[in-house]
Amino acid sequence: MCLQNCTGKMCLQNCTVKMCLQNCTVKMCLQNCTVKMHLQNCTEKMSLQNCTVKMCLQNCTVKICLQNCTVKMCLHNCTVKMHLQNCTEKMFLQNCYVKMCLQNCTVEICLQNCTVKMGLQNCTVKICLQNCTVKMCLQNCTVKICL
Questions:
Q1: Parallel, antiparallel or unpaired: strands 28-31 and 46-49
Q2: The organism sits in which domain of life (predicted)?
Q3: pTM of the model as a whole
Q4: 66 near 87, Cβ under 8 Å?
Q5: Distance from C-alpha of 124 to C-alpha of 127, rounded to nearest angstrom
Q6: Which one of 16, 46, 71 terminates a domain?
Q7: In whole angstroms, how far apart are CA 134 and each of 45, 118, 146?
Q8: What is the per-residue pLDDT across 5-36, written as a single tens digit (0 to 9) for each?
Q9: How would you label 131-141 residue by residue, b for 16+ Cβ within 10 Å and e otherwise?
């Protein structure tokens, strides 16, 4: 399925398809999906829950909620508020001007060139922070920190 230039409300549930969603100004609900999703240039609220997919979210000005994910997430050039909870994957967050909340993560986190406020709690991860002008809160962590 290729959904392009949509201005409606889309609900895609229990999908085993390849979805291409480009240039959407809609509210998207993607639940229980085993698909490869490409969401580019979105200006809406996206809810991605319980996904076993590869997600590429680029150039988004949206509020992203990613919960209970076992995927590889690539978030590039985002001006969004991101909530990543209960993740068991490798996350790449580059060139972000966002507020990031990473809780209960067992992942490798690479944060480069960030001007954000970061709250990292209860993490068992390796954290690499390079060229950051941020306020960092690290509590109850068993991590390796590279500054």
A1: parallel
A2: Eukaryota
A3: 0.73
A4: yes
A5: 9
A6: 71
A7: 26, 7, 14
A8: 777 677 777 777 677 777 877 777 878 878 78
A9: eeeeebeeeee
Q: How far apart are CA 138 and CA 143, in angstroms?
A: 10
Burial class (CB within 10 angstroms; exposed 0-12, middle 13-18, buried 19+) of 112: middle
The answer to whether the CB of 78 falls within 8 A of the CB of 96 is yes
Q: Which range marks the domain in which residue 36 is found?
A: 1-71
Taking only the tens place, the pLDDT of each residue in 86-120 is: 877 787 778 878 677 778 878 787 877 877 677 77
Q: Give me the count of residues in the chain.
A: 147
Average pLDDT, the chain: 76
Match 């490409």 to its residue by tokens. 38
Report residue 132 CA to chain centroid gap: 19
* Number of folded domains that form the chain: 2
